Amino acid sequence: MASDGVTGVLLVGGASRRFGSPKALAHVGGETLAERAWRTLGEAFTHRIAVGKAGDGLPLPFAVADDGAELRAAIVGVAAGLRAAPTDLCVVVPVDLPDVTPAVLLALADAAAGVQAAVPQTGPLPGAYSRSALPVLERRIRRGELALREALTELDARTIEVDEALLRNVNVPADLA
Questions:
Q1: Would you tell me how many other CB atoms lie within 10 Å of the CB of residue 133?
Q2: CATH number, span 3-169
């Protein structure tokens, strides 16, 4: 059952340098990575937004909110998602995690109760971020400190254990096999 107190945020603004083409448009299981992630977010949350670079002009079946920055960094997308979300809590998913499940996303949302962020043991994404984390993220962006993992050291964050097989990241086309 979808949660309506959380916004699912899909990050589609990566440069895809190692992949060689936009990851969002790569196919897995009969759908693009973007469609798969969007569907998964929809199974978990009533509210969803996609954040990326409007200038990329990706042919996606949903709107992409421009993150308003020239930089390509996950921290920029997380901050943009928090600013645009209708809720105080966002669960943020990069487009290149084809095996993440609604249950994992809901567990992150639950773990974020009372803290600024909840992340798996593998790192900052996917992750649940409270709007109260926004000042820290925006300050780090202004300073050029773009590592989202390092931003977690300034946040009241909780780590949860997640089956690492569900967090498989797609970096090159061979990772889709």
A1: 25
A2: 3.90.550.10
